[in-house]
């Protein structure tokens, strides 16, 4: 009986020690950057003399129809959320920015922007035809 207790104690000790593996290090390097709140997010690897993620998002927030959507989402959520952006790096010459509402269960895309970070060229994908056009052309098409 004493031998069984020692055997079970050793087994529990072995399982406890083996389940506590090495702690994974946070992702660092060129593929990630820390936000002001300490979370790691995937970032666009900036090329020299290229636009940064913050500059692009700030510019997109100042587009009139994006600012209007921000105010709509803000009022809809009782001033808890605004417009959110999902970023997808396609290549070093093209980065996709999805602008929309980041709900509890899903992300609702309102606009899909394609940005060239080297020359800061911003295009928006028209949702029905799928054509990429400038922001001015998109605004003109929406007013027709």
Brief summary:
The protein has four helices and seven strands; from the N terminus they run αββααβββββα.
Question: What do these coordinates show?
Answer:
The chain has 144 residues and is of the alpha+beta class. It is 34% helix and 28% strand. It contains four helices and seven strands, in the order αββααβββββα. A hairpin with a 2-residue loop joins strand 3 and strand 4. The radius of gyration is 24 Å and the shape is elongated.
Topology:
Elements (H helix, E strand, L loop, with lengths): L1 H18 L12 E3 L5 E3 L10 H9 L2 H13 L7 E8 L2 E9 L4 E10 L4 E5 L6 E3 H9 L1
Antiparallel strand pairs: 1-2, 3-4, 4-5, 5-6, 6-7
- Derived from helix and strand composition plus strand pairing, the structural class reads alpha+beta
Give the overall silhouette. Answer: elongated
Q: Tell me, rounded to a whole number, the average pLDDT.
A: 77
Measured by DSSP, the beta-strand proportion falls in 25-35%
The biggest sheet, with number of strands, parallel, antiparallel or mixed sense and barrel status, is: 5 strands, antiparallel
Residue runs with pLDDT of under 50 for 5 or more positions: 23-48
Query: How many structural domains?
Result: 1
Using brief descriptors, characterize the structure shown.
about 140 residues; alpha+beta; five-stranded antiparallel beta sheet
């Amino acid at each position: 009986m004493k031998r069984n207790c020692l055997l079970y104690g050793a087994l529990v000790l072995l399982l406890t020690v083996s389940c506590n593996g090495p702690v994974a290090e946070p992702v660092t390097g060129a593929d990630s950057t820390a936000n002001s709140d300490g979370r790691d997010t995937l970032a666009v690897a900036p090329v020299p003399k290229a636009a940064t993620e913050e500059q692009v998002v700030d510019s997109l927030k100042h587009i009139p129809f994006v600012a209007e959507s921000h105010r709509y989402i803000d009022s809809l959520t009782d001033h808890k959320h605004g417009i959110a952006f999902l970023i997808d790096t396609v290549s070093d010459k093209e980065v996709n920015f999805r602008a929309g509402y980041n709900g509890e269960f899903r992300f609702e895309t309102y606009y899909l922007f394609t940005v060239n970070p080297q020359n800061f060229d911003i295009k928006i994908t028209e949702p029905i035809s799928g054509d990429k056009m400038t922001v001015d052309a998109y605004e003109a098409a929406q007013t027709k």
